[in-house]
Write a structure and sequence with these properties.
By secondary structure, the protein is an alpha+beta fold. Helix content is about 50%, strand content about 20%. A hairpin with a 5-residue loop joins β8 and β9. The protein starts with a helix and ends in a 5-residue tail after the last helix.
């Protein structure tokens, strides 16, 4: 019988039931999708590394190698359980083409190598180790399958001096635990030993990957890194650890997961507000019935149980629907992650969505249970006397004072429909405040992901990657002093070109920076003129004198320094004190970089960069083509190329998430408008019948409800846009802080990206979409009640 009565109640309030079910289902769907994606992220960040037996610390080195010194170092360090030196053959983009398409415009640095059968394994798409490559074939990183559309059987051509050319057939694709995603700008390509030897005789540059495996990487990486650098071992290249590898694997999908989780929290808040409103309305409408039942001896607990059963049925149905939809959505969102890192299974991936769905169900039932305490306030004696029934839910300001005085029907110049709508907004203060809150949350839901997506898609985001402003950039890979002439030729080509208005040449060398109460910090320091085409500084300014240095925000936190402090930097000429004058945002090299004006003549140069700004009217594409032809060893590209190749995948994922969030926000705003309008229409039934009998036109009867909704939305939009800016910027920076420096850096200001403002989208498109959704939903909700039974 209680179940039958519950079904009858739900059918009687079918519109409210459907709206609440959809809202709660959306909340569950978003929560389940976010939980599933985060579980996959947590697994993907370590599963591929563990399955491939990836090293805990890796040092790239270009040039001659003293293998004996590396072996002796590993033998002397008790933390090192194993080490390996892998030969790589570096290829310039101009020497490599895929299916006839040259890679000279790619920022990826490709190297040929022979796969290992013991550690640092390359895993094929089925998760099996690639241990042998047939002569005449090549295995490519899975990125080229995803991004460039290459397939098994595609042709890779390697060229060199004197007309040398070698064609290799793509035999398959693999996942590289160290260099898997586009964010890792180096890629390993697998060939046979015979092919590697033949190609190395004709072209390419020799490089090495020196890898270490440690007993306790959580505590020993820093000590081993410092000991390696102090020992003056081969280090002509970046040194990275597992933290950087994990960052490359999860950065893009981590931002999408955070956006979906934020959407889930917003939708859940909206759903709980609407459940509260629906329950409060039901209690007010059924107040007399409750009083009669209480007078007949029905216990409060039985009444609470009946309402809990009614709304619990809605919540359970929504949970099942949301769980099924969320699992599907989570799998779709994880498509890119799965493509790069492989399928991630395990108990966490299966349990996380179920736990998230149950959490939303429990929160919803707890909210209903708390609301049902209002039953205690219903006195059956007062209800039977009719003393309070007419006043239930009618609290509000006096009609003779305040806003009602300004909105008087007799003295206000406003049109009657507009006036009635504003009076209703003020008179029903409780539900109007709820509307304001919900519309604010809808605005946040639509605008916050859009702000992050606009930031990631803006070419200006590269200034947050330590790159700086430029039109055309030349990246010159160097191997110590041997290849320094390459940098000089690039500099001469830029200086003599009249199409270039200004340029800045910077050279990166690696140094140890002494840290108080800790081991020295290994930093790549970029030297040159940092006042031309600079990065954006979060604090202070660019270094302009020989005794000054600027640190990335992560490096600033690692050293514990502040602006004005002095740090000692070890150079080939001895220790050098440098005063910290600035701090800037950077996510490259794990966020640990610095800028100064150090002499580089006796240092081992790792790379150099020449950034340029074009003169007005210069043909950018022609300049890029000319420089690429003159400097075939270098990578030449514009800012859009760097942005697309580094952040294209991440920006695309975030844009899709933002579009979905905006659509959900518009749907929510429409659902809430329809729900509240129908509830108000039910309360105003007698009033509407009277107006209809008096011959008041239909549009006059309908317009006040639309005016109320749009007025609430108009008040909510500025607040929602302000909150979305704060939430999106704060959330984005927290995510980057966690990914670049781990949980230890949270709250230390190691990321200070400012959101890119897209005024057309934020100030025009989003308000317009929400207004249309609210208008359509409100007009549809008022059709039946304002048109039936009587003349119009």
């Amino acid at each position: 019988m209680p179940g039958l009565a519950t079904v009858r109640r739900l059918r009687r309030d079918a519109a409210v039931t459907a709206t609440l079910t959809v809202l709660l289902a959306l909340a569950v769907l978003c929560a389940v999708a976010a939980a599933g994606l985060m579980a996959r992220l947590a697994g993907a960040s370590t599963a591929l590394l563990d399955q491939a037996d990836a090293p805990h610390l890796a040092q790239m080195h270009a040039g001659e190698l003293d293998a004996g010194a590396v072996d002796a170092f590993a033998a002397e360090r008790p933390e090192v359980t194993a080490h390996r030196t892998q030969l790589l053959l570096g290829l310039d983009g101009s020497q490599l083409s895929f299916d006839g398409v040259g890679q000279d415009s790619s920022i990826q640095q490709n190297s040929l190598t022979v796969p290992s059968a013991e550690s640092d394994l390359m895993l094929d798409l089925d998760g099996q180790a690639v241990t042998e490559v047939r002569p005449g074939t090549i295995w490519l990183p899975v990125m080229y399958r995803i991004e460039d559309g290459l397939r098994t059987g595609s042709e890779v051509t390697i060229t060199g001096p004197d007309g040398f050319a070698r064609d290799l057939e793509v035999a398959g694709f693999f996942r590289d635990s160290l260099m898997n995603t586009p964010l890792a700008s180096s890629k390993r390509l697998l060939v046979s030993e015979r092919d590697l030897a033949e190609i190395a005789d004709r072209t390419g540059s020799t490089e090495y990957l020196i890898s270490f495996w440690l007993q306790d990487p959580q505590t020993q990486v820093s000590a081993v890194r410092t000991a390696y650098q102090v020992a003056d071992l081969p280090e002509d290249g970046p040194m990275v650890d597992r933290q950087a590898f994990m960052l490359f694997a999860v950065l893009g999908d981590g931002l999408v997961a955070a956006a979906v989780l934020g959407a889930a929290l917003v939708v859940l808040a909206i759903a709980l507000i609407c459940v509260r409103l629906a329950l409060a309305t039901a209690l007010a409408r059924e107040r007399r019935e409750i009083g009669v039942l209480r007078a007949l001896g029905i216990r409060r607990a039985d009444l609470r149980r009946a309402y809990l059963l009614r709304y619990g049925t809605i919540a359970l149905a929504a949970t099942i629907i949301g769980l099924l939809g969320g699992i599907t959505l989570g799998s779709a969102l994880a498509a890119d992650l799965t493509a790069y890192s492989g399928p991630t299974g395990g108990a966490a991936v299966l349990l996380a969505p179920v736990v998230a769905a149950l959490a939303v169900l429990i929160v919803a039932l707890a909210g209903v249970s708390l609301m049902l305490r209002r039953i205690r306030r219903i006195d059956p004696v007062e209800v039977l006397r009719g003393a309070a029934s007419g006043a239930a839910g009618r609290s509000g300001p006096s009609r003779a004072h305040g806003l009602f005085g300004l909105l008087s029907l007799h003295s206000s110049p406003l049109p009657v429909p507009l006036l009635l709508g504003l009076r209703t907004l003020v008179r029903r203060a409780g539900s109007s405040f709820m509307l304001l809150t919900v519309f604010t949350l809808c605005t946040v839901l639509a605008a916050a992901p859009t702000g992050v997506a606009s930031t990631l898609t803006s070419p200006g985001i590269v200034t947050a990657m330590g790159i700086g402003r430029f039109d055309v950039r030349i990246d010159v890979p160097l191997a110590g002093e041997v290849d320094s002439s390459m940098h000089e030729r690039a500099l001469a080509a830029v200086a003599s070109d009249p199409r270039i208005e200004e340029y800045a040449a910077r050279v990166s060398t690696r140094h140890l920076v002494e840290v108080e109460d800790g081991p020295p910090l290994n930093l790549p320091i970029e030297s040159g003129d940092h006042t031309v085409l600079p990065v954006q500084y979060a604090e202070g300014r660019a270094p302009t004198a020989d005794e000054e240095i600027a640190l990335s925000l992560v490096a600033l936190a690692e050293t514990g320094a502040s602006l004005g402090d002095t740090l000692t930097v070890r150079t080939a000429a001895g220790a050098r004190p440098l005063r910290v004058v600035g701090a800037y945002q950077d996510v490259t090299q794990g966020g640990l970089t610095a800028k100064a004006q150090l002499p580089t003549a006796q240092e081992e140069v790792q790379w150099s960069v020449i950034a340029t700004r074009l003169a007005p009217g210069a043909d950018q594409e022609a300049l890029i083509a000319d420089l690429a032809a003159a400097l075939p060893e270098a990578t030449v590209g514009d800012v859009s190329m760097y942005h697309q190749q580094l952040l294209g995948e991440m920006a695309g994922g975030m844009t899709r998430a933002a579009t979905a969030a905006a659509a959900v926000a518009a749907a929510l705003a429409g659902l809430i408008a329809a729900l509240v309008t129908r509830m108000v229409l039910a309360e105003d039934a007698r009033q509407l019948d009277t107006q209809r009998a008096l011959g008041i036109p239909r549009d006059v009867r309908r317009s006040p409800y639309l005016v109320r909704m749009l007025a609430a939305l108009l008040l909510a939009l500025p607040l929602g846009l302000l909150l979305s800016q704060l939430i999106a910027q704060g959330g984005l920076n927290v995510m980057i802080e966690a990914m670049t420096g781990g949980l230890a850096t949270l709250g230390q200001g190691t990321s200070r990206i400012t959101l890119h403002r897209a005024p057309v989208i934020v100030l025009v498109a989003i308000p317009l979409v929400l207004a249309v959704a609210v208008t359509v939903a409100t007009r549809l909700a008022t059709i039946e009640r304002t048109t039936r039974r009587g003349p119009s």
